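FAQ
Q: What does a multi-component entry look like?
A: The components come first, one per line:
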Amino acid sequence: MLQIIFDSLSLGSLYALGALGIALIFGVMRLVNFAHGDVIAFCIFALLWPSTDAMAIVFAGQLPWYLLVPLVLIVGAGLSVLCEITVFRHFRRANPATMMIASFALGFVIRYFLLMLFTSRPKSISLLPMLSQPVEIFGARLPLLQLITIVATVFILIGLSLFLRRTRFGLEMRAAAENFSMARMLGVRANRVIMGAFALSGALAGAIALIFGSQTGTADIQMGASIMLMAFIATVIGGLGSLAGAVLAGFLLGAASVVMQVMLPVDARPFRDAFVYGAVILVLLLRPQGLIAARGTKERV
Amino acid sequence: MTITNAPALAPALTAARKPPRFALARRTVITPVLLSLVILAIAVLTVMTGSKPFNQAMIDVFLRVTLVVGLYIFIGNSGVLSFGHIGFTCLGAYAAAWLTINPMMKKASLPGLPGWLLEARLPYWQSAALAALFAGLVALVFGRVLMRLSGIAASIATFAVLAMINTVYSNWQDVTGATSSVVGIPIVRTLWPYAIVAVIAIFVAWAHAISRSGLALRAARDEPTAAAASGIDIPRERLVAFTISGAVMGLGGALMAHSIGVVTPDTFYLGLTFITLSMLVVGGMSSLSGAVLGVVILSALIQVLRWLEAGVAFGATTFALPKGLQEIALGVIMIVILANRPAGLIGNREITLFRRNRNK
Amino acid sequence: MTLLNLVNVSVRYGRLTAVRDVSIDLKEGQILFITGPNGAGKSSLLRAIAGVTPTAGGHIEFDGAEITGRAPEDIARLGFSMVPEGREVFGSLTIEENLLVGAGMHSRTAGAKGRTASDLASVYDTFPILKERRHQQAGLLSGGQQQMLVIGRALMTRPRLIAIDEPSLGLAPNITDQVYERLVALQSERKLTLLIVEQSSARAVMVGGRMILMRSGGVVLDGDARTLGNSEAVQAAYFGYEEQ
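Then the predicted structure of the entire assembly, as tokens:
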């Protein structure tokens, strides 16, 4: 039982962090950023030397954790800001569909850039190996990593919410997310806020890369995509643009996946994801505006 | 050939009780005719060159035309972005596999099929028609539920449909062979069936666009409030478009199966979804001509980049792009096109022969 | 001294021309009402000045600097504060946070903290109700209170000119009276320039100042509000007889 709770929480953490990264950017510029998953993949590969071998040649991965973690976060933030400056800045007045496709094209570019350097073979890496030992809590044996994932996510969420509530920049971001043009009319600098959102989102991508990379012990170009699909769905059923909704929906999806894995009859288990997606459709039908409808994101029919 | 600025297919729906349907048809039929001529011209040229790889490349182009036109029928007319349509292509492809593979092979690889399917062995054109019907039916069922949604919620719900279909087909060992390839589908190597199917798709799209339902749907896309107020049942009209486009996607899927002879669930997943959507958006999301041109232009681009990657001789030196640069260049070019033409290359216009008087 | 100067400004949405060759110069400290029937182009003009809607022609100067085509935030930073139609409070932010967003553009200058605090105190002085409810979500305020909040928010930017689009929209007449009372008081206390868009000319006649009447995208009348009053020309402009 405890095992189920921890499994759902740690899976939900990944989805929630992913959904946050998408919701932050959607909030300020109505962009559904499909490149986010590839930013995640990039973060992990940034730690490896380009090579085609199955065993990765790690160069930065051997850094002590107090250097490694900030490095990955900075790589994520930097790449994400770079995407904004080189690509998304040119799409300020475009419609959401066009922006979505542009973000997909950008993700494509990042992915094939990685493929060119590393080939499509997943590579085994050992990131933060000390985290894979099990620990005993309330009689359940849990990998230390799972615990750290959950704790780290909680810290990130608290930190982010303090940042948004207590700082000038956070205030401007919340104002801009609700009504961008009004915020600008009050002197809020559009480009600065958008870049800030991209930086935060990129740092979150870095965090996911670290967690996922240490959990699976592999660096895989596809790794971003699998989380992104769920995170993307979480963003929408949470109420596009609502950060709290994205987090909530992320954890719900994590829980739904784990619980269905356990509860479904054995024959139906391989089809678990189909049931999860079915549940998603159901939620959308009941609450098309999302669990927590964000203000200022009213959509036309 | 000129491009008129008139949204030739979108005259006011409110014009009259009894729209002069034939007049409208006569006025707009030039667009599908021209587009079909482009397709047929490409086909004739290809057959004349007699090159096998080129033949195969053009088969791919015609398949994509079918798929992107299928997407256009729903996305272009309703304005709702759908990520789910490749799911219907998947259904069509597997239906074609079930109906055409040698029963002996089927009994070994797909023992879970019902008896009548196990025994079936149809010619490819019959199986393609049935596959389209099947995909259309499934689209109808999903659409009944989904078409109540709109905007991004609808897009995500279609995404969920795609993921659902993919999950089921990736795991249903006895019926779909799970993730392993289903082989033994009769391969059709001549170009003509593919060209004809692309032309059929274009005419279906046109006929739907000028039908009462298509006109109502586009009116609802541009002026949702006014359309609802004048009695248009938006979910119903969307459902019609969703079903038709689902059938066209299924038809495309069936032919795709016959073009390569092998199907796997992941052939019909995110990659194909995005490449077809990109073609539609790059060409111009709300225009039939845009759908076709998007395919032709992006496919040509991909082909040129492939040649460059393979190496081009300039005199004594061979110049070749590093591997993987093809896709990167494609992505960059797409971004540049979209940044400069956010509504796609030809916007919402249609190709016609003459510059037409707008108030006609 | 001219604070805001429009020369032949036009605004277009696709084929539709909303504002056609409008020229206005507004002196510092003036109150200017722009009135006119629905669809006259008043709001479009205001949004064009604020930089939210692109202009299709002409140019705009604020305090001697060309602002045509500049970003809304740059225009705001020069001292042009816009209160758009429908008020547009940040509903999920508290009242105090709403006000603080307006103070952002000065937060990098020396002594910013103290100045923000005193600006906040002075807004609360002007609108005591905002102080009372300062930690509540702005979305929960009544229409009149929201109108006061957005005026207060505009004041926090330390503007030289406040442009308000239909402050009376959706408010009961006695609340509208209160809003105008404060506006006029602020204008004389702080030597503010006011640019107010209203559909009806009645309010302009009551408050006084300069009045410009727009119709179909162009300026029809320009003069002293009280003199123009309910003259026949005004009636004609509203009801659409074109005087030849």
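Q: Is there any commentary attached?
A: Sometimes. For this entry: Confidence is low (pLDDT under 50) at residues 296-301 of chain A.
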